Amino acid sequence: MSKISNRIRGALLAAVVLGAAAVGAPGFAQSKSAFDQTNIVREVRHELVQIPWYSVFDNLYYSVNGSVVTLNGQVRNGDIKDEAESAVKGIAGVTKVVNNIEILPASPMDDQIRTAEYRAIYNEPELERYAEGILRNIHIVVDQGHVTLEGTVDNQSDKNVAGIRANGVPDVFSVTNNLQIQTSH
């Protein structure tokens, strides 16, 4: 009888372990899904910053909902919009890309404002450090004389200085300062 009891106990224990694993399976699937989405977010950022023509005068941002990536922003060149979509479509796990990137109208006046804004912001001694490296933290979007500052800075003072410098450029109709203060982890 003890051999049968041990077998029954073993079978019951196996059933409990397998049952617990089965109950845990949906949680595992959710964790895997969250992991996949985290990987997609990381890969989208990586792909976007690799676009050859992406510059300080363009602004790209995105959202990820499961396996669907939505691209947003403003670019000076339609090739950047197309390249962004193409690069993101190639990421493992992405099933759909919604491309809402706006192409800014070509304008010699806007080009002059872009150059003047760049000099005003990045030649300011307090902001020079943001000009280091390939990718600039402060993006300058100019659309028909209206300037929007996007990106991140280290503190409120830098945000204020960038806004003041941007507002000092001639022929600008308005400046919207959307710079975010970077939080350290």
Keywords:
185 residues; Histidine-containing Protein, Chain: A; four-stranded mixed β-sheet
Structure in words:
- By secondary structure, this protein is of the alpha/beta class.
- The protein has a domain at 108-181: Histidine-containing Protein, Chain: A.
- The protein has helices at 2-49, 78-89, 108-122, 156-167, and strands at 59-65, 68-75, 96-99, 102-103, 138-143, 146-153, 174-177, 180-181.
- The strands form two sheets. Strands 1, 2, 3 and 4 form a four-stranded mixed beta sheet that branches. Strands 5, 6, 7 and 8 form a four-stranded mixed beta sheet that branches.
- A hairpin with a 2-residue loop joins strand 1 (59-65) and strand 2.
Low-confidence stretches: 1-31
The number of helical elements comes to: 4
Q: How much strand? A: 15-25%
Largest sheet: 4 strands, mixed
CATH architecture of the domain at 108-181: 2-Layer Sandwich
The helicity comes to 40-55%
Principal-axis shape: globular
* Ends apart, CA distance between termini: 62 Å
Q: What is the CATH domain class of the domain at 108-181?
A: Alpha Beta
Overall SS class:
alpha/beta
Find the count of extended strands (DSSP E, 2+ residues): 8
Mean pLDDT metric: 84
Q: Per CATH, what is the topology of the domain at 108-181? A: Histidine-containing Protein, Chain: A
Oligomer: single chain
Q: Give me the Rg, rounded.
A: 25 Å
Query: How do the helices and strands follow one another from N- to C-terminus?
Result: HEEHEEHEEHEE
